[in-house]
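We store chain and fold; example below:
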Amino acid sequence: MSNICSNCYNGCVETISDQCVRYTGVDVPVLGIQTGDSLSYVEQALITFLTSTLDGNGIVLTIDPQVICQIVNKNLVACEGLDLPNVVTAIIKAVCELDTRLTTLEGRFNTLEGPYTIGCLTGVTSTSGTHAILQAVITKLCAVEVTLNALALNVSTNYVKLSDLNSLIAAYIASAGTSTKFFNRMVPYAVVEYYGSLTGKFDGTGAGIAGTDWEKIYLCNGNNGTPDKRGRVPVGATTGMGGGAFNPAVDPGVAGNPAYALLGTAGSNTVTLSATEIPAHSHSATATVSDPGHLHTIAYAHGQADQNEPGAYGDLMDMNGTKSSSTSTNTAVTGVSVAVSVGSTGGGLAHNNYQPGLGCYYIMYIP
């Protein structure tokens, strides 16, 4: 504050501070003070603010509404701002409410009570209190610890870091050496083609000889629990496989398509066609005509008729000049015969029904 009168005691009508002394500092919006306010106004503003801070009503907090939890927010007086008394009162009420909700007459937390799934815990039920359940867990863990100690198990000697697992496996494989047993590299019960020699590898039943690299390997000849793959090719089973609708080409519900169960068989190396399976066709026929020839007899008048006797003719003669009483031709059969023959063909034999193949041995690993 400063004296802005040119001469406060020489020329001023009234020599009181409210008239001659004005505030020249920065504006203070929170107090309502601006540069140029009278000294009395500034003093009153300060007094009013200080008075309000004594009971907290003048202290208004700036709080993001999103950080005020529901239990505090519902205890705030809606018609009042976030002044200190309103906020503190809401917090006190929220704490008291939480204390009431969390504490029962027995001093336990209701929100932590069962029912529990006790699993391997003993001495408690699913409705036991939190304290009893927690104690049962502690007891069980202590028993497990005793067991682990008895077995000399601990994290440092029996567990490894996941990041070290690959290198440890590689080191173990390198130290163990490579096994020559073929079954170590085969999937159990999977059939594999084999084109090598059988000598010294399998016994008379088709089982791999024990003590050799071929032990537990079996020829798929129907012995030793193997499928009989001799002379057969594999085909996918149509039963027990699940999946969607069949393609019509393999649908067992379509006439002519077989249904394959596991180890089921179908098909033949040869096929004999029935009459209905033979394609429509025609045959050439040969006709033979035999005609021995024949004669006809015709009677005719010999000579001319007498002109004086109308209707009179000479004697009737046949074709050989012999006198005949017939006036018509003689009847005769032709003697013609026709023979038709159709050539036959075909022997009714079966035809081959197999695709080109390559022989191999099928082997299987059975644990």
Notes: The radius of gyration is 63 Å. Residues 65-102 form one domain. The first strand starts at residue 2 and ends at 3.
